[in-house]
Amino acid sequence: MAGNVALMERTASALDFLLQQVVRSVEPTAAQKDRARASHNRLRELLDTGQMESRIINSYLSGSYARDTALKPIDDVDIIFEIDPSRWPRSFLLSTRPSPDRVLESFATAIRRRYPNSSVYGQRRSVRLQLHHIDIDIVPAAQHETDPAMICVPDREADEWIKSCPRRHAEMATQVNAKRGGKFKPLIKLLKLWNSNLPDTVRCKSFLIETIAIRLFDQRSFSTLGEGLVLFWDFLASRYNEPTVNGAWSDYGMSFGWLSISVPDIGGTGANVAARLDRPRARALASKARISRDRILRAYETRDLEAQRRTALSALRVS
């Protein structure tokens, strides 16, 4: 009996070591981080000149790169540029802010002048600069009138300014990571890897995966990466009545119903991060989660380390 317990502990330890290796394999390299840092710092220096100097109040990083949850290679970086809205003409008499399209176009023009040999084009809420090794999304933002932690970003299609809170996103990720002994961000990278390997008809936005995980693991503890994977996948499976291994689940403020799906933004903007996730895709995601959960549980049970490795990688859909 003691020998069986020791063997189970050894295989569990080997599995966690394997998962840590997988995390390291998808981590951006030091060289990739250095190139990204040099590129975004150079852009910020260039925009802090000329007419833009008086229009920009502050700038800071956003997105998965800033939250340290990005996978390699680092192919895009988001930068928030807080602006002084009074430096642009107001969109109409009673408005407190300029036209979203006008602000985005002025940023696009300024970047084209500073990067004449690079591709620059406008997007719905940002301007993209394409360099040979990285894309940089430039997001103009105005401070929110009442909440200093929140910003408003221009939405070209809606012709309005939309609330966002990237700093709270970063703070929450860091907070949950500390609460879970530094294992949360590595777990997020494994979950993003799994999501990226799903079929196109199932895969969802990585920010949605991260938001679900923050809501879940802010309240639910785990001791190993393998346990974290089991919990996350079991929670997703439970949303559409797939068999679970952890009994009844709380909804943690999320709703995966027949008519609508709601994953509220942890930044407190009131936005639904799952707004574009329809039921067929969500149902398929729950089914894939159940399959991966069962595979990682089999990996825990196997005594052959090579078979364990293959089973664990198949759970992450890594060939």
Keywords for this structure?
319 residues, alpha+beta, Beta Polymerase, domain 2, 2 domains, seven-stranded mixed β-sheet, two-stranded antiparallel ribbon, globular, disordered N terminus
Number of strands: 9
pLDDT averaged over residues? 94
How big a fraction of the residues is strand? Answer: 5-15%
Gyration radius over CA: 22 Å
Name the shape in a single word.
Answer: globular
Number of helices: 11
What is the SS-derived class?
alpha+beta
Q: How many individual domains?
A: 2
Distance between the termini: 35 Å
The description of the largest β-sheet is:
7 strands, mixed
Provide the helix percentage: 40-55%
Low-confidence stretches: 1-8
Q: What is the chain-wise order of helices and strands?
A: HHHEHEHEEEEEHHHHEEHH
Give the structure's gist in a few sentences.
The protein is of the alpha+beta class and 319 residues long. The protein contains 11 helices and 9 strands.
